[in-house]
Amino acid sequence: MAAIPGVTATAVGYEGGALDRPSYQDVCTDQTGHAEVVELDFDPAQVSYEQLLDTFFALHDPTTLNRQGPDWGTQYRSVVFFHSPEQEKQARAKIEELTAAGRYQPKRIVTQVLPAQTFWRAEEYHQRYLEKRGLRQCHI
């Protein structure tokens, strides 16, 4: 996937768990409560939060509980961490819209919508992981 105009920075990491400064090895135990996430900085004059939500739902399967492709565990859950009441409202509305449209029938969307917590940046070898391996994108 090409870069999204208006997204000014990305980082992969862990969010939503109980352990401070978790490592990948910690998160992989499925005991910390963290999800593997991507943090985005974006310019709302160039890309809307709704457009980012559309991309989020297009890039993964929001109907699989604690799983993405061959990867499974709570760290692979589908989750939106919101930073404002407006983002929460938009994320919930997007799920309702996709559900009403029947996009994933007969399955249902299991994406969690939760308040943002501390984002812990993943180890440097995880940043731009696919790009470092000569791949452009992951098709789950």
Structure write-up:
The protein has one domain: Peptide Methionine Sulfoxide Reductase, Chain A (2-Layer Sandwich). The protein contains 4 helices and 7 strands; from the N terminus they run E-H-E-H-E-E-E-H-E-E-H. Helix 2 crosses helix 3. A 3-stranded antiparallel beta sheet has the order 2-1-7, with no helix packed on it. Helix content is 26%, strand content 22%. With 140 residues, the protein is an alpha+beta fold. The mean pLDDT is 88.
Condensed summary:
The chain is of the alpha+beta class. 26% of the residues lie in helices and 22% in strands.
Strand order of the largest sheet: 2-1-7
What is the CATH architecture assignment?
A: 2-Layer Sandwich
CA gyration radius, whole angstroms = 15 Å
**What's the CATH H-level superfamily name?**
Peptide methionine sulphoxide reductase MsrA
Uncertain residue segments: none
* Beta-strand content estimate: 15-25%
CATH fold title = Peptide Methionine Sulfoxide Reductase, Chain A
Helix content: 25-40%
| Global geometry | globular
Give the termini separation: 13 Å
Largest sheet: 3 strands, antiparallel
